[in-house]
Amino acid sequence: MRRIALIVAAAACAAAGPAAGSDWTRFGYDAARSNAGPASTGITAANVGKLHRQLVRLDGTVDASPIYLGGVRVRGSKHDVFFVTTTYGRTEAIDATNGRVLWRFTPPATAKLAGTYQFTTATPVADPGRAWIYASSPDGQIWRLSVSDGHPAWSVEITRLPAREKIAAALNFADGHVIATTGGYIGDAPPYQGHVAVIDAASGKLLHVWNSLCSDRAGLLVPSTCPESDSAIWGRAGAVVEPATGDLLVATGNGFFDGKTYWGDSTLRLAPDASRLVGSWTPTNEAELNKGDTDLGSTSPALLGGGLAVQSGKDGRLRVLDLGSLSPAGRKGGELQTVGTPGGGGVFTAPAVWHAAGKTRVFVGNASGIAAWTVRARRLHPAWTAGAASTSPVVAGGLLYAYDPDGGLRVYRASTGKLVATLPCGAGHWNSPTVADGRIALPEGDANQHATSGVLDIWRR
Predict the structure, then answer these.
(1) What's the confidence (pLDDT) of residue 405?
(2) Omega before 191 cis (within 30°)?
(3) What is the CATH code for 5-460?
(4) How far apart are CA 237 and CA 260, in angstroms?
(5) Could you tell me if 160 and 220 are in contact, meaning their C-beta atoms sit under 8 angstroms apart?
(6) Average pLDDT estimate for 34-51
């Protein structure tokens, strides 16, 4: 296979097997999308600023996150591997030790769509058995790919109109199911509807589809057959899985709301197989949000524990929700608390929720900065703030990693907000890092530039 890695600065690193639990199998680290990874990564406040950086040139831009499997067998040998999916659907396996591309899968549609507006920004997800990963392509397909060599076992379409319905959010996996959501493209050109698709991981059978508009209709819609358009499910985390129940939590963007079959600008709780609506929360100013293109669903809900979740959006507010009070009746309001986001700016990122030393902390980043709160007595209490922009923050090994889309990966002590290092890297968009086994991986680039090349940064000891 043609090598495309360009090593700028790299330290030799022995190919040691992974520590237990070091895999980073999806965006957000776990099915609940906590964005809080291993307690120990081999990277500390003392050594993070001394890591060596390698630039790996890719055949596409990764406007998403890498995933990581340690010590898996690829083409007959054991490797620690980062997997990425580019905006035009190429999925690549990259040796975490030396940056070599081990295999590359290119969907048939890539040749036709490369360079166009039609792309995906979905992070792939790994099967718990570590033999398969699942990835999206901009023609509306989800693929099951072999970890060993990238060959596809099946593909399934999750939209009848991929030119309008975009797979933007990260894929998830729970209870033998691959979970995907759809939204729309910049400009909200109709028709499209946000929906949740649940796929049997073994067979590729599309089991259930729940539509946020025309929710009384099961299965994939031909978008033009629903009287309403939009209500995208496009937050970076996509569908969030509640650990205790297996229920799915999603948030929708602008769209018509009636609390019966149309669910624009709402936080929604679905059964684990997305076969029915279990509960909902809708802000009282839903109509104003819809009119002003102020999507609630620019971010997915984040689970705080204790039956609580926090929901933000483009309007620069964080709302604490009691999940036990959600009802499918379509009532508005009832949040426990509302607080402002950093600088009052909109949130297009996924929060991180970190449980450590008897405390629960939540971190939210946006274009104005990053802020931390502690959760106490069912309320958010301010902890610390930093003024530098951040995409979706990640906690690992007690450090908080925050990528500035204008360039630079800042590393803070998660408990205090003290800046301990800034790692140099280029500009991006929604990219966020993965941290495991003494390595950090972060893609650069912006899907909206329609580039057919890109960069993955890997830092190592």
Answers:
(1) 98
(2) yes
(3) 2.140.10.10
(4) 25
(5) yes
(6) 97
